[in-house]
C-alpha cells in the first residue's frame, strides 16, 4: 500500500537523510545556467576556483608565481565569492499528485524532496523559502536564513496535502484555482535575481503559458524542474482490470483493451512532447523522480560533489 500522506515530524526527521548527502557548510554563489548544472561567478574572494593563463586586465596580485615559473607563462588565480543565496522551492500538492500505484503518493514525494532541499540549503548558509500550492490554496513564504523558516515551510507542506476521503476536485472559496502557472507567476514577484529555484511537480498542469513563465524565471535565476512520476502514468500493464481512485469513486479500466491501450499511449506521447518542448523553450532542464524511488537516493545524483545544490 502506497504512503498517502506525510506529517510534519516525518518531514523534520528527513534532516538525518539530508545530512547523509554531506553538504559542505559553505555556499558558493552560482550564476544562471539551464538545468542542474553549475556556473560559478568568478571574482576576488575567499574560495580558490582555478588557475588560468594571465589575461589583460587581471589583477597582478593574483598571479600564481609557481605555476608561472613552471609553465613559463603568466598564470592567474581565480576565486569564487562566498555569499548566501535565496533558494525558492515551488511545491505542487495539487489533485493530480494525490495518486500512486507504488511507493508513495506523488504529493508525499514532492513534500519529501522539498524538505530535503530545504535542509540542504539551510545548512549551506542559504536563505530558504517556498511557494506551496494545492488548487484551493497557494501559500508564499519569502526566503530567510533561519531554521524557523524551514520548519514553517515543512508545516505548510504537511498541512496542504490532500487527505483520504477528501474531494480533490473541490474548488476554492474564491473563483481562482491555484495551479502551476499561478505559482510560477507568483515566483516572478517573490524571487530576487540570482535565486536558486526548484519547481517540484508532476507537471500535469502544464499549459501554453508555462514555458513563457519558466523562461522568464530562468532568465535571471537558476531554475530546475523536478518531475514526480508514477510508473503507471507512463506504461499501463499489458492485461488485467484495475481501479483508480477518483473524486467520485473508483474508475475501472481494462488494460487488455487494445483501443484503450492505444488511446493511453497516444495521450502519454502527446504530454511528453509538450513537456519536452516546454523545457527546451524555457531553457530549463528537468529531472524525473519516480514514486517508487527513495527520495534521498533519487536526489543525490542531481546534486553537485559533496551534495551541493548547484
UniProtKB/TrEMBL annotation:
Pfam families: DUF58. It comes from the Bacteria. It comes from Marinobacter nitratireducens. This is DUF58 domain-containing protein. Residues 50-272 form the DUF58 domain.
Amino acid at each position: 500500500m502506497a504512503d498517502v500522506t506525510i506529517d510534519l515530524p516525518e518531514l523534520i526527521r528527513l534532516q538525518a537523510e539530508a545530512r547523509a548527502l554531506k553538504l559542505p557548510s559553505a555556499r558558493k554563489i552560482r550564476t544562471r545556467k539551464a538545468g542542474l548544472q553549475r556556473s560559478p561567478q568568478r571574482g576576488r574572494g575567499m574560495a580558490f576556483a582555478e588557475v588560468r593563463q594571465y589575461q589583460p586586465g587581471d589583477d597582478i596580485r593574483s598571479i600564481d608565481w609557481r605555476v608561472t615559473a613552471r609553465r613559463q607563462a603568466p598564470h592567474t588565480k581565480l576565486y569564487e565569492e562566498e555569499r548566501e543565496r535565496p533558494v525558492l522551492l515551488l511545491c505542487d500538492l495539487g489533485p493530480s499528485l494525490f495518486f500512486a500505484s507504488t511507493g508513495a503518493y506523488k504529493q508525499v514525494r514532492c513534500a519529501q524532496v522539498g524538505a530535503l532541499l530545504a535542509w540542504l540549503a539551510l545548512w549551506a548558509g542559504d536563505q530558504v523559502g517556498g511557494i506551496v500550492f494545492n488548487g484551493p490554496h497557494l501559500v508564499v513564504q519569502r526566503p530567510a536564513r533561519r531554521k524557523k523558516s524551514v520548519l514553517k515551510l515543512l508545516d505548510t507542506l504537511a498541512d496542504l496535502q490532500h487527505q483520504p476521503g477528501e474531494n480533490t476536485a473541490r474548488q476554492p472559496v474564491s473563483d481562482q484555482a491555484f495551479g502551476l502557472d499561478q505559482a510560477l507567476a507568483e515566483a516572478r514577484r517573490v524571487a530576487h535575481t540570482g535565486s536558486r529555484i526548484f519547481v517540484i511537480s508532476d507537471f500535469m498542469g502544464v499549459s501554453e503559458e508555462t514555458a513563457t513563465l519558466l523562461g522568464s524565471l530562468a532568465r535571471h535565476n537558476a531554475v530546475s524542474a523536478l518531475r514526480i512520476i508514477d510508473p503507471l502514468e507512463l506504461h499501463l500493464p499489458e492485461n488485467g482490470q484495475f481501479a483508480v481512485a477518483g473524486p467520485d469513486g473508483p474508475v475501472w479500466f481494462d488494460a487488455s483493451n487494445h483501443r484503450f491501450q492505444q488511446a493511453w499511449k497516444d495521450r502519454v506521447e502527446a504530454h511528453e512532447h509538450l513537456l519536452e518542448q516546454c523545457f527546451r523553450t524555457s531553457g530549463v532542464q528537468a529531472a524525473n523522480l519516480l514514486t517508487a524511488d527513495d527520495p534521498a537516493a533519487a536526489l543525490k545524483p542531481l546534486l553537485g560533489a559533496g551534495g551541493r545544490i548547484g
